[in-house]
Fold:
Amino acid sequence: MGINLSHAALRLVTGAFILNSGVGKLKLDEEHAAGLQSMAGNAIPALKKLPPERFGKMLSFGEITVGSLLLAPFVPSRLAGLALGVFSGSLVTMYLRTPGMTEPDGFRPTPAGTALAKDTWMLGIAAALLLDRKHKGVKVARRAAG
Structure:
């Protein structure tokens, strides 16, 4: 099956980053889990109903899963991109909906929001993995011209 080299670069860096983050959250204490849960609840209000400890475990396992999907070469890039898109889309939504994270224009980050705003790069990588068609259109155009 294999993946192309440009996808491998995107998947390796992003997958390692997310996997490391998830592993780091395996032993998240209740106080830190509650803080993350409060912010995540801005994007997905139903998360506020979970016990903080359970939320922390779910977040950790979710990050480990997304990171592993990105790193596994047998997982198609589109599937890995879809998982990354859902994950990073949630993070960007949290950034946009958390008070104090954006300037009055609603998009540019405040100093406090810069750490969350950087998650937009993962959304861009997800789009690249999902939208790449391996240049099929270029080959068809060349054949038609020749």
In short: The longest helix spans residues 77-97. The radius of gyration is 18 Å. Confidence is low (pLDDT under 50) at residues 135-143. Residues 7 and 16 are 14 Å apart (CA to CA).
